[in-house]
Amino acid sequence: MKQTILVTGGTGFIGSHTVVELQQAGYKVVIVDNLSNSRADVVDGIEKITGVRPAFENVDCCDFKAMDDVFSKYGDIKGIIHFAASKAVGESVQKPLLYYRNNITSLLNILELMPRHGVKGIIFSSSCTVYGQPSAENLPVTENAPIQKALSPYGNTKQINEEIIHDYIHSGAPIKSVILRYFNPIGAHPSALIGELPNGTPMNLIPFVTQTAIGIRKQLKIFGNDYNTPDGTCIRDYIYVVDLAKAHVKAMARVLDNDDTDAVEIFNIGTGRGVSTLEVVEGFERATGVKVNWEYAPRREGDIEKVWADPEKANTVLGWKAETNLDDTLRSAWKWQLKLDEESKQGK
Ligand code: UD1
Predict the structure, then answer these.
(1) Could you read off the pLDDT of 173-205 as tens digits, one per residue?
(2) Is 300 in the pocket of ligand 1 (CB under 6 A)?
(3) What range(s) does the NAD(P)-binding domain occupy (predicted)?
(4) Which terminus of the chain has a smaller tally of CB atoms within 10 A, N or C?
(5) What CATH number is given to the structural domain containing 305?
């Protein structure tokens, strides 16, 4: 058995897939989640996939004392993967203080507790949102592209948290960190035992596509077809959530087992492939054989026109590469939607 890892937000979308990959790689996992945007039965799904039930603590990372108690209770935690955060861009504009309080206080608490409990490494979930709209010469975007002023409080919390980690380590704190800048995570575990559980009407593209395909939503709106892109719709780098989860396992091993690396490292986690919204919708129809009712609608405020990753550093330095093609990824999202539909018919 490898080291014990604390995963905050471990019942969430990316968190749950990462817990699976950590356990399959031999790590012992303790999940901390306040279930504000996830369900307790996600732990059952993780257990079914891996055969191991991770420890679970229903705790809010903003509660310093409760977090202190979690570290004391498990004693041997060596690394943290910090997912727990509020993540709806639009909501963050409406409720900025909630976002600043949740996303920043939780990181401050964890960083302060790490040295007290001998925890060496933290992997932080950041986002390509820190790059804003990169200029043409910065596409695909590398880790050295300039950071641009955030367009939302959510995006700003990612930037501020990256700076907090840098400043703390620079001050001599005895910890190491890997910051992962995710592009657009999509899909679900191939078992369809865990996946994305959007709260209310989905804001993100893929859950909206699958909910439209199954008939929960009448029609998908593709926001904007007059962008400066080949088909006029926005371009993103859609990364399979299981591939993304595996990047965390690599990052954890690098932080805990490799003494020669820098105290803070940043990696883009994407495929390197820019795909338009229209290509996603058409790709979904092709891969699943299911039609999606859609139409063009005006641009969505705050959307970036095009961004995709240069994942070279993650490929060569971290030794990680996105492996799954878009069709398989979209099929996994559909399989998960079918599973949710089955559950709702059974009244679960
Ligand atoms: C945004 C954030 C990202 C954050 C993510 C999670 C930015 C630049 N990106 O990603 O940091 O992690 O949300 O919430 O702030 N689309 C439609 N119709 C829909 C939904 C989406 O056409 O109903 C289009 C969008 O206009 C966009 C693409 O699909 O071009 C992807 O949208 P979405 O899934 O919401 O992700 P981002 O906005 O890229």
Answers:
(1) 999 999 999 999 999 999 999 999 988 899 999
(2) yes
(3) 6-331
(4) N
(5) 3.90.25.10
CA 212 to chain centre: 23
Is the domain of 62 the same as that of 9?
yes
Known active-site residue 154: yes
Q: Is the CB of 203 under 6 A from ligand 1?
A: yes
Nearest CA to ligand 1 atom 19: 205
Give the integer Cα–Cα distance in Å for 249 and 252.
5
Distance 303 CA to ligand 1 centre (A): 7
Strands 264-269 and 176-182: parallel
Does a structural domain hold residue 136? yes
Query: How far apart, in whole angstroms, are the C-alpha atoms of residue 33 and residue 115?
Result: 21
Do 135 and 225 belong to one domain? no
Confidence of residue 2 (pLDDT cuts 50, 70, 90): confident
Residue 226, domain extent: 205-234+273-317+324-341
**Strand pairing partners for 221?**
295
Q: Is 195 a domain residue?
A: no
pTM of the model: 0.97
Tell whether ligand 1 has an atom less than 6 A from the beta carbon of residue 277: yes
Within this chain, do residues 252 and 328 fall inside the same structural domain, yes or no?
A: no
